[in-house]
Amino acid sequence: MEKITMRIDGMYCGMCETHVNDAVRNAARVRSVKSSYKKGETVIVTDGGFDEDAVITLLSGQGYRVTEVIREPYEKKGLFGFLKK
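The chain above was modelled as a monomer; its predicted structure follows.
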């Protein structure tokens, strides 16, 4: 699994977060997506095959600007995940 963090300009409220989340879900297959207008980011967890260009194009067309994309492996942290080192 992969964790993708997108820094996004143009989110100003909770409705913007919902709008971005829905757009990401409609553009790509994701396991989860969570946006924060306060942090200016959207965090996406996917099994792979994520087309970031399609999502960036879709968000740009809706008035948002993706400034950075960070990809990293995602490891599910269960209840006792803090014990794993």
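The helical segments are 14-27, 52-61.
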